[in-house]
Design brief:
- Helix 5 links the parallel strand 4 (100-103) and strand 5 (130-135).
- This protein has two domains: 6-290, TIM Barrel, CATH 3.20.20.70; 297-405, Alpha-Beta Plaits (2-Layer Sandwich), CATH 3.30.70.100.
- The relative contact order is 0.13.
- It is built from 15 helices and 13 strands.
- The longest helix is centred in the middle third of the chain and has 17 residues, at 234-250.
- 42% of the residues lie in helices and 20% in strands.
- It has helices spanning 6-15, 28-41, 59-72, 87-96, 110-125, 158-168, 192-202, 216-224, 234-250, 256-259, 263-278, 284-290, 310-324, 358-364, 366-376, and strands at residues 20-24, 45-50, 77-84, 100-103, 130-135, 172-175, 206-208, 227-232, 297-305, 330-337, 347-353, 380-390, 403-405.
- The protein has 408 residues and is α/β, with parallel strands linked by helices.
């Protein structure tokens, strides 16, 4: 249940003048520390995985752990793909559990950025997923992401921001007003007047990338000008690496566990510090009350095949699995057949959708329609299809998993 709709989460922050941290994770140490900090502060939080970090971990494995941690958390959580490199990467992230995405086209021309972002919006909104757009270019200083963001920053144009938001249909906008990825060289001067005018022009939650290293006053002014999400990674990486270096100095022969001693605590302390600065502390209860839960929906289809052999039926299901898993918002497909004698239905598909909104998208998707009309319906006899969502029952009171029928 604590996994919530990211659109609702950001708009709550935007309306109530605070910012939610978007923390990019690179390991389970980061995941555990950020969740622990959010629960201690009673703060909503956004967990992110960035395309630029995919060389450091298996995306599918860490995404699975991140979703599991979010669902058992005591505070509202959203899951975000940060700086996705393509719509294909975005669809993969959605199908693995992300409910917020950014396909980064900020280095492209305005026309290309609009075109590719609009395509991402059409796909993601069909899955109920929140889309962050980025306009302007935030370059890198020093640190982990320096190589991936070369060149000079380009500030976001107010006029282009208005046109971009209108033409793409994005839910929130990442802007460039003077921050930088990585470590800052001295105090950065931020263009707050530009940010204020962008906020008035678009009327959407704004996002700051490169949020590490700013002063308390700068954070407060960012939020006052419409920033509802602050991406934060370099400072967490730095406190973790500093802790490891200190462990090496204390005992150069220490093993892995010794080297990592205290890393989670240092990351957690830094996350708690900025949550207090950004005003998200203590907001968890009201966010949970005012945000829609984000939960997958299962479709159960039971059917018989009137014509053909068991081998032909198996081939049909194999091809069906291949088609269905390519559709955005389809998280997994399980096919099977009855093990009891003389069942009413011999075959079954269980399809898990990322969100209830995917049901209509799935039914109207051209690949599904082509498969159903060409291969499935001509041979399928009696059949039944029902969609279910998990009921909101506290785990301690749940003897078995409970499902509720989705009324369609």
């Amino acid at each position: 249940m604590p996994l919530v709709d990211m659109h609702d989460l950001l708009n709550h922050a935007y309306r109530n003048n605070y910012a939610v941290g978007g923390f990019n994770l690179v390991s389970l140490d980061f995941l555990d520390a950020v969740i622990a900090a959010a629960e201690h502060c009673r703060s909503p939080v956004i967990l992110g995985l960035a395309d630029a970090h995919f060389d450091f971990y298996d995306f599918e494995l860490l995404m699975t752990a991140m979703e599991r941690a979010a669902r058992r958390a005591a505070v509202p959580v959203a899951l975000h793909l940060n700086h996705g490199c393509s719509c294909e990467s975005m669809v993969r992230a959605i199908n693995l559990g992300c409910n917020g995405v950014l396909v980064d086209c900020s280095s492209k021309s305005l026309a290309d950025n609009v075109r590719q972002t609009r395509q991402a919006v059409e796909i993601a909104h069909g899955c109920g997923v929140t889309v962050e757009g980025e306009l302007g270019y935030v370059a890198a200083g020093e640190g982990d992401d320096a190589a991936s963001r070369p060149g000079e920053s380009v500030y976001t144009s107010v006029a282009e921001a208005r046109a971009y938001a209108e033409r793409t249909g994005i839910d929130c906008l990442a802007v460039s007003i003077g921050t930088a990825y990585g470590r800052l060289r001295g105090r950065k001067r931020l263009d707050f007047d530009r940010l204020k005018r962008i906020n008035a022009a678009v009327g959407l939650p704004l996002v700051i990338h490169g949020g590490s290293g700013l002063t308390e006053d700068q954070y407060h002014r960012l939020i006052h000008c419409g920033v509802a999400k602050i991406n934060y990674h370099t400072a967490l990486s730095d406190v973790a690496s500093k802790c490891i270096r200190e462990n090496v100095r204390a005992d150069a022969k220490s093993g892995y566990a010794g080297l990592m001693n205290g890393v989670r605590e240092q990351i957690r302390a830094e996350v708690e510090r900025v949550m207090h600065l950004w005003g998200s502390t203590g907001r968890a209860a009201e966010v949970l009350m005012q945000c829609r839960p984000w939960q997958p929906v299962q479709q159960v289809m039971m059917f018989n095949i009137e014509f053909g052999s068991a081998a032909q039926a198996e081939d049909l299901m194999v091809q069906g699995n291949e088609v269905l898993t390519r559709i955005p918002g389809v998280r997994r497909v399980i096919s099977g057949w009855a093990v009891t004698k003389q069942p009413r239905y011999r075959y079954c598909w269980l399809v898990e959708f990322a969100n209830e909104k995917v049901i209509d998208t799935f039914r109207n998707h051209p690949e599904y329609a082509a498969f159903a009309n060409r291969m499935f319906l001509p041979v399928a006899g009696e059949r039944i299809s029902i969609e279910f969502a998990e009921a909101d029952i506290p785990p301690r009171n749940r003897a078995v998993d409970t499902l509720r029928l989705v009324q369609g």
